[in-house]
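Board notes (copied after class):
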Amino acid sequence: MIMIKPDRRLILNFDWTLLILVLLLSGIGLFNIYSAGFSLKDIHRAPPYVKQIQWILIGIAGMAVAFFIDYRFLFRHAYFFYGISVILLLVVFMTGYATRGSQRWISIGNFTFQPSELVKLTVILALAKYFDRHRLGTDYQLRKLFIPFMIVMIPFLFILKQPDLGTGLILIIMFLSIVLFVGLEWKSILIATIGTLLMSPVFWYFLKPYQQERILTFFSPDRDPLGSGYHIIQSMIAVGSGGLFGKGFLKGSQTQLKFLPEQQTDFVFSVFAEEWGFLGGMILMIMFMSLILWGLKIAMYAKDYLGALVAFGITILIFWELFINIGMVLGILPVVGIPLPFLSYGGSSMVVLMAAVGLLMNISVRRFILQS
C-alpha cells in the first residue's frame, strides 16, 4: 500500500531552486514551441503549445506524486516498476501504432504514450536497487556486472527493434555512467573499451540503413544535402543566422518559412538559437548546467547510498539528453532523435522527466528527516 504521510518538514525544506529551474525551462520551451508551430497551424488539430500545456500540467501532477511518496517505497518495488515498463515495450509490438517507420507509441484515450521514455527512469531505479543491495566495498569487475548489464540490455534490444537508436544509446550511456559512479576497475575499463571497438563492425551490421546513413552524413553532411544531410545543414544555418542577439520572437526565417525540419521536437534548440541568438543560447545553457549541478549536489548530500545513486542517475540522464541534442543541432554529433529536456514537444518525455524531478526533490528534502 502506498503511504503518503504529510510532514511539515517536507514543506519547510522544500527544494524551491529545483522547482523554479524546471518550471522556467518548461515555460521557455512552451513559448519556443508556440513559435515553432506558428507557421504550421492546422485548423483541424489543437495547436502543439496547447497540448504541451496539458502535458506540463500532467507532469506537475506526476512530480507532486513522486515528491510526496517516500522514495524508499519506490525503491523497494523498483524491480516491479521495471518489469511493468518492459511489459509495456512488448505491448508496443502488439497494439502500438507506427509512424515514420517506427513503432514506439501506445494510444491511451486522446493521448499517446511512449513506454521507452518510462524505461529510462525505471532502469535507473532498478540499477540503483541492485548496486545498493550488492555493494562490494571495492571497484567492480566486469564479471560482477552481468545482472545490471542484463537489466539494461533487455529493454535496449526491444527499443532497438522499434527502431529507436537514440533512446537505446541513452540507456547504454546511462549504464556506463552509473557503473563509473559506483566504481569500475581500470583493467575492466580497458577491456571494455577494447571490446567495444572490436564489436563496432558487428554493431554497424545491425543498424537500419537509414541509421547508417545518418552516421555517414554526420561525417559529411554535403554528401546528400537534400536527403539525409538536410536536417543538419538547415539546423546549422538556423543557429548561425541567429548571430549574437537573435532575430526576435516569431522572426526566425528558417523556422517560419518551414526550412527547419522537426522544429518542435529534435531541433527545437535551433528555433531558440535563431530567435534569441548566442546570448540567449548561453543563458539557456547556464540554466541547464545549474539544474545539472544542483542534481549532483543532491546526489552528494543524499541521506543514503540508494538516494545518491538515483539522484545521480536522473541528473546524468538530463545531462546526456542535453549534450546529445545540442550536439545534433550543431552538427558535431549524428542525428539520433534525442529530445531536448523540458523544451522539446512531446508528452511522454515531459511527464517522465517531471516525475523524475519530483523524485529528485524527494531525495533532496528527506535528508532532513532523520528517522528511518
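Comment from the instructor: The chain has one domain: 8-368. The first helix runs from residue 8 to 12.
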